Amino acid sequence: MQLNREALTRAYRQMKLIREFEERLHEEIQTGEIAGFTHLYCGQEAVAVGVCEHLTERDKIVSTHRGHGHCLAKGCDLDGMMKEIWGSQDGLCNGKGGSMHIADIDKGMLGANGIVGAGAPIAVGAAISNKIDGPDENGKLAVSIAFSGDGACNQGTTFEAMNLAVVTQAPAIFVFENNHYSEHTGVDYAVGTTRDIASRAEAFGMKVWRGDGTDFFAVYDTFREVLEYVRTPGNGPAAVEFDTERFFGHFEGDPQRYRGDGELDRLRAERDCLKIFRASVTGAKLLEDVDLDTIDTESLKAIEDAVQASRAAPRPQPENVLENVYISY
Amino acid sequence: MAKMMYRDAIRNTIFQEMQRDERVVVLGEDVVGGNGTAGGPEAIGGIWSTSTGFYDAFGPNRVIDTPISESAIMGAAGGLALAGKRPVAEIMFADFIGVCMDQLWNQIAKFRYMFGGKSVCPAVIRMPVGAGYNAAAQHSQMISQFVTNMPGIKVVMPTTPEDACGLLRQAIRDDDPVVFLEHKFLYAMSGEVNEDPDFCIPFGHARLARAGQDVTIVASGMMVRYAETAADDLAQDGIGCDVIDLRTTSPLDEEAILDSVEVTGRLVVVDEAPPRCSLATDISALVAQKAFASLKAPIEMVTPPHTPVPFARELESAYLPSPAKVAAAVRKTLEYR
Ligand SMILES: Cc1ncc(C[n+]2csc(CCOP(=O)(O)OP(=O)(O)O)c2C)c(N)n1
Ligand SMILES: [Mg+2]
What we know:
Chain A is an alpha/beta fold. Chain A has helices spanning 5-30, 45-52, 68-73, 78-85, 119-133, 156-168, 187-190, 198-203, 216-231, 263-270, 273-283, 289-312, and strands at residues 60-62, 144-149, 172-178, 181-182, 185-186, 207-212, 238-243. By secondary structure, chain B is an alpha/beta fold.
């Protein structure tokens, strides 16, 4: 653990913000105020934050249908995201995209994605662009990251993207978040190389890492190595598989009958990345409980403010339908 | 007759066909749901509840939960069909046709013709279509315009539970590949269904959903419901509409459309696809070509604009056709002098 106080505080704040963002959405969705399909990232925060804390705005990420955590971790505006999910004209995508399509290109966030497996090829394209742009003054390349689930690793697009990245030696990183489920199906059934997605990536000829996705420090330290490798010109792509957990249903409204007895309680008790982080930093006397409690309070307030702002935000008008497309009639 | 929901009509029909013919095989993502989990197979039973109980009744050989791999689902349906089975594949959302277009368009659609008529490909591909759930640009689309354009594919768009039953049975028994487009909004709608285990509705025969002398409205799928509502409202003002439910867009019941237009002289086409190169334009062209002399007014098309499907509620309702938009189009054709 080489992180200083400020970096630790920041990491915790990011994870907590994501957590509260999702917990609040879970409640708001029940009221019917929020439309559409929403997939919550609760439980996986350490992956998004442990990865994105290393990145700069030159680095790009491509996300999935479960994208809120990646977006926040990459620096998307909290209010803008909440407003988008509320379908406001002031949302990050003017209410056109919603939860599954949040993007902020300037922040290097090339979009959440409603199509499972669509992200990886896009990330490879961005990585080829990084390669064309070449290294910075320190001799390091910008990278592009594809976040994918265990389910997405079964999509041909993901395989093609991995191979193309190897063939082009593009500085792409495939981050597989194995939360053991794709919708209602278990990874033990759907992935032939059971619980070992990284070995698939390895077979394409790239270097791979594995880590515990519920431990921020494991993610952070592993990803530092991955990045060092991929930023070095000539090394090409890499992949990393993080073992993680999803605390809510696949989408909001999922009855989750596929879960075992007491599974969710056990996950919340034993595999909660926020609890694990707190125990580890307070145990090592790097931060005090009160420091973290303050962040908890501030996060809740930030979310409350974002929700209030979203409720008050202007709604789109019918004529806005025709905007943002080269021609419309 | 029995009253049931559209989704149950679909489920029951597949179930009965699986009982009747052991060549019928179901495959798709989460059609079993729960495989590889503590809850076990059938923990969910299909996200649209159109395959509940199949796995328990017919087992893993004939009820296949697939990984998220649409190309493999579509291609395997083609292979199963070429090898003598009768697959009923589910693509969870029609939008995902983008992932597996080759296997449908270049493979399944073309086998019979390319192989000189020496093979059949009795695959049914079920795909839920349509907007109305604020599911945004990649989970809301209509795809009838693509698949109707593919030679070799039959395209079905049932509106009522009874049609879902009779057309699906026909699709499963048909030797050609059939794309079966189920509108998500119709799943929960109820209606009487013919319970005859051999009840089939032949393709290419439209249904007259409403009868009237003044204007012809042509629609399919969910759009028929809007057209019916509009027609009922207009009837209050003494305006009579023929509402033609196409049922199948390929083959197309040209006669039903032309016969009606010859009487009314006015046509409104309602379509959930964007307005260019679609069913709406196709049917307009057909009528302009073959019933030109009967027309008393320009043809009206009620379609979404030429944009992707937007997310926000206000935007999506501005985007979609509606009974009010259909009624306005009918009035416009009547006002033309
Ligand atoms: C091409 C495509 N197929 C199917 C779906 C439906 N779908 C959405 S998410 C999902 C499961 C994804 O599982 P995984 O990649 O493990 O991500 P997780 O949901 O666990 O984050 C499925 C099947 C989709 N959106 N796109
Ligand atoms: Mg998963």
